[in-house]
Amino acid sequence: MVISRARKVPPAKRAKTGHHGGSGKCLAFSLPAADQSRLKDELLRGTALYKLAKKWGINRQSLRNHREKHLSPADMALTADRPPGKTLDQAEEVVQQTQAMYESARTAGNIVLGLKALAQRIHALELVAKLRGELDERPQVTVNLQTTQEWIRIQTVVLRFVDERLSAEDAVELSRRLRVLDRPSDR
Fold first, then answer.
1. Residue 169 domain-assigned?
2. Domain limits at 29?
3. Is residue 47 a part of any domain in this protein?
4. Among 5, 49, 51, 101, which residue has the fewest nearby CB atoms (within 10 Å)?
């Protein structure tokens, strides 16, 4: 009879709670895209890792590794330069709140409330984009050249020139070619 002694592993050596990536697999990338974005925002804001570990079910070391290996230094610097409680942070918070409202309305099957939440989210996203400088709000000017006096004068001169120098045969051929150009292609 063989008596085996089970080796007792001290608490410090036991596997930590939460999911572990291992072998080059970052667990943060296994989340859906929207959740990855939220996790990234929370990491950039400096949310405590133990809170994130509880919320996302990913252990602190994996979160720490994700922050160090996958978040760009530029994102970190931009977030660090922003003092907390400013307008952009508040607008981003509104975006998250409206997303939560939408999810809640969707779960409850309330279409009207869901559509209202989506409309508010669109406004909040537009505000965030404006605050970040991602929207080009300069006025757009469109000039229709065919109605300008210069174009009408040029067109008149060219047509008179062609009319004076074109033979009857050339006019028929030109007309035929222009009709070919005006037809929609059969491709």
1. no
2. 16-81
3. yes
4. 5
* Alpha-carbon torsion angle 109, 114, 115, 118, nearest 10: -150
Hey, what are 186's tokens? 């059969």
Domain end marker among 81, 100, 123: 81
C-alpha 111/C-alpha 109 separation (Å) is: 6
Specify the pTM: 0.34
Q: Could you give the CA distance from residue 83 to residue 96 in angstroms, rounded to a whole number?
A: 19
Based on the structure, what is the number of domains in the chain?
A: 2
User: What distances in angstroms separate CA 178 from CA 147, 156, 187, one per listed residue?
Assistant: 21, 18, 19
**145: Cα separation from own chain's centroid:** 36
| 98 and 115 part of one domain | yes
The span from the first CA to the last CA of the chain, in angstroms, equals 86
Per-residue pLDDT at 125 exceeds 80: yes
Between the alpha carbon of residue 113 and those of residues 34, 76, 88, 108, 143, the distances in Å are: 21, 36, 25, 10, 43
Q: Is residue 95 part of a domain?
A: yes
Average model confidence (pLDDT) across the chain:
77
Q: Do 32 and 60 reside in the same domain of the chain?
A: yes
